[in-house]
């Protein structure tokens, strides 16, 4: 399994866990009333952090290992900054319903899932391009074929 597939799989797991958490909260009638709330939160959190780290590594595909490690750590830090910013933007201005307190998780999950899908698509496209010969290779092959005929 490569880093893009790890990012995609764990981003899906995080989004799924946080969606299940929201459903559990809704069924229970509010925050802190469901026994599934905390386990689903931590499952989603762990999967989200792995998805961010794998996304950082996938963004620097082909780079030296220290660069990939730094990109992974930077992606995790950027994810946390995004969650804090969303929380600060929403803040207490929209208090009153539990869904608003969960908004930062939904935004983080959606952004990470979008990044993982984009990375997966980007790598598939790059892999497809590698299968096709470049122009210089085609020209050289044609010259060799022409020389062999003479």
Provide a concise account of the structure shown.
Keywords: Membrane, Transmembrane, Transmembrane helix. The protein is mainly alpha-helical and 150 residues long.
Question: What labels describe this entry?
Answer:
single chain; 150 residues; mainly alpha; transmembrane; transmembrane helix
Structural write-up:
It is a single chain. By secondary structure, this protein is an all-alpha fold. The protein has one domain (3-149). Helices cover 82% and strands 0% of the residues. It has helices at 3-28, 37-59, 65-90, 98-101, 103-131, 135-149.
**Topology as a string of helices (H) and strands (E):** HHHHHH
Q: Can you tell me the number of structural domains? A: 1
Question: What share of residues is helical?
Answer: over 70%
Radius of gyration: 22 Å
Spatial shape: elongated
Runs in which pLDDT lies below 50 for 5 or more consecutive residues are none
Percent strand: under 5%
Which sheet architecture does the biggest sheet show?
A: none
